[in-house]
Amino acid sequence: MNPSPSTRRTLVKQYKDSVRPAGVFVIRNLMSGRVYVAGSLDVEGAMNRARFELNLRSHRNKALQRDWVAQGATHFGFEVIDRVKERDDPAFDRAAELEKLLELWREELQCTTDKGYNTP
Q: What is the pLDDT of residues 80-105, one digit of tens each?
């Protein structure tokens, strides 16, 4: 059953006006344990984009891309590890909060060392 044009317009507007969850995600090499940590104001969309880029062999992180091609997609896991807690405060800055979370998780997971794919 297809919605009427007015219902469809309303649904599209609601989707565009909705705030997508911001957060930090990790791509984990299940064989070596190496991790790639990234964040986005649309965390689910960013994970999907990373998976798509890896499958197309066009991901910007060449070491991650090289391992993806060599070991195969089945040896990698994708996981959202933290989300920005939204607040009603008008001074709340989602991007700044995301940067803080990203910094914390990159330090925690040591993704800029030989344990990770991120560059310092």
A: 999 999 888 889 999 999 999 999 99
